[in-house]
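Journal club prep — side note

Before the paper discussion, L.F. wants everyone to see what a predicted structure for a comparable chain looks like in token form. Sequence:
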Amino acid sequence: MIITQKKPIEEVMALVGDAKTVAIVGCNSCATACQTGGEPQIKELAAILEQAGKKVVATTIADYCCMNLGVKAKMKPINAANPDCVICMSCGDGVQCVAKNAPTIPVYPSNNTMYLGEAVKFGVWEESCRFCGDCVLGQTGAVCPITQCAKSLVNGPCGGQKNGKCEVNPENPCAWIKIYERLEATGQLDKLSMRRKDKGYGDFAYPRTISLRGKK
């Protein structure tokens, strides 16, 4: 699940600026689960905008703001309403997808996109993946050193742990102790001697595209 947090309303209003008419697009998937872009949040934001003297001319909620085909249909009445701007209550990917389907209308985010999160209990998510594009989980016992280690070290611990806890955040266990224990439990301690390439951006040309149909 993509975890989002609401931007301070002051930031959202600053983005809206002098716009007199506004449309709002919510997301019925991740943002709804995070309570940052579902029906209640759309109504709440619309009320705030109206109180600030803006006119909300249209609202809609897409099943997934990151799915272009669904968003394209949802944006037809939004574009027909011709607002001065659109506020998208989704992750950053959803904002970009909405903007592609509103080519002449400014689109602004109401959320900050945080990370791909694992639901540990209702309403609580822990960061699990940073979308680095070069997964090492097969060599680290399915414990991610990029997200679980405060320093994102890929070839072993820093040596600063104390009593099994991270020196940067003592509330967190040392990721490399977790990796060691997992590899030991699965009989794969030999993988600790494997050399992993340090993370960097030199191997990628951004933005990236993945297609099941091969090259475009």
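L.F.'s comment for the group: The CA atoms of residues 140 and 192 lie 8 Å apart. Keep this in mind when we get to the figures.
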